[in-house]
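A note from the maintainers: we've had questions about how concatenated examples are separated. There is no special marker in the raw files; a new sequence line simply starts the next protein. For clarity in this README we add a label.
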Amino acid sequence: MSRRKAQQDDKEREGDRPPSLAMAAYRQLYRDITNGTLAPGRKLPVGELHATYGIGFSPMRDALNRLCAEGLVEKREQRGFFVADLNEDVFLQITNARLVLEETALRLSIAAGDVAWGESVILAFYHLSRAARDETSFVLTPEWSAAHREFHFALLAGCGNEWLLGFCRKLYEQSERYRARRRLLSTGLSPGTRSHLQVHEAIMKAALAHDADTASDLLVRHYKESFEIVMNADFELLDNPRRLVPRAASEPEGRRDAV
């Protein structure tokens, strides 16, 4: 892909100009795959997608090929396109990578965070609180999911490293497929699950106080708990489940691998 084409795609993704048909197809398929509307393993016949989304065959194929490159769609020899399956090992890898990268981004963000950054975090938490879900039924609305994403990336936005943020976004969006599947398969929170709003408020307060250790500990704990909730709902847990990496940036010595 040329630099000019990459820049054009970025602008279209951000809504700076009317999207091409291929970009429109990509956005709609991306949304429906990550929110679980198009289930893992589902076949994606181009003709059926054309009828559903009202977008031509050629731009639809372009969108599917782009989603293949991002790991959300698989192209199987002589069988066509399929939504990528969910996989326990892949989800573990995604979660481990998020722990490492997002803790790093959070620590950088807290170290560099200014007044504008703090205000953006407070505003994002306000949006999250207004969209708070029903804790008794685990109903997650699109509004709550959008506010949840806004909050987490407001925390990381002060890190000053667009490459790091880009990798964090990709991992976040990949993990959304697993959370979306959990929402479709399960009702009710497990006993003892803390209020998600309280969890996010605690992370926010620590970050605004520039207490990087506490904020990082809370973020890691939050992601580990989310991982276990999804695993309990959607996968058969192993007798000796693999552990997540315990920390990221706070342990400078030695190499840490997921085990």
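[label: protein 2]
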Amino acid sequence: MGSYTHYLLKALRNPGSLLLFGGLAMISLISGNPLPLIIGAAGKLGWVVSAPMIPAWKRKVDAGEEQKLRLEGENRAKDLLKKLPAEEQQRYQQLVQTAMSIRENYGRYNEVSRGFLENISARLDDMLLRYLRMQFARDNYRRHLATNDASDLEHRMGLLESEMESDSEQIKRIKGKQLQILQQRREKLVKAKADSDLLEEQTTTLEELMKLLKEQALTMKDPEEMNAQLDSLMAEVEHTEQTVTAIEASFDTQFDRELRAAEEEQRRLQAQ
């Protein structure tokens, strides 16, 4: 629910009232009579001031914004889903089917259960979107880890350390910088692997809990118990999202750029 100012601005920009005011202004312009314009301005002002206090108007505004957010969420989900491998898309669709079953089972009971369904429906949608985002992040981690091998970095570090024993001080300084960056990249890979494992465990936990919620809907267990489990799960998912490192599509990090710069400087010095 928004503030008075929020609903006032929505009333001010309402297409219907703007169209009516514009029509009266046009009549005044054509006829040369200012009365229609004055009436339109007074009516517009009265509507804008009073609309934020009308419950029906506030409900209409809230419903429109909820619809907009839902459509935006669906569009984001479609975009993310297209980028996932086929097996991950199927995994997501299975969770969507589970959520649909929960809605259907609660929707066919009494008014109390249907009222509860309305309360959790938006949360189920939010959970599905979070699950999809975690899938997308985990897939990025997997692709990054598949093309960056910690053992390869360790091999390169070993070669550098061996070469530095006979290098000049100038070359040794450059290779020392490379060695430092490779160590940082290895640490990054270890962190990426830990984050990937965390995401896998979190998505699996979410899938299992959704199955449990479906079973509870079938047996009509206590709705409040389901609500509490949703609270717990959402808190855990939010914590995971906050602790997992943000993914860059290219994974072209500062470490990678610094390493290339150090290697180029080494080649320049060796060519002298």
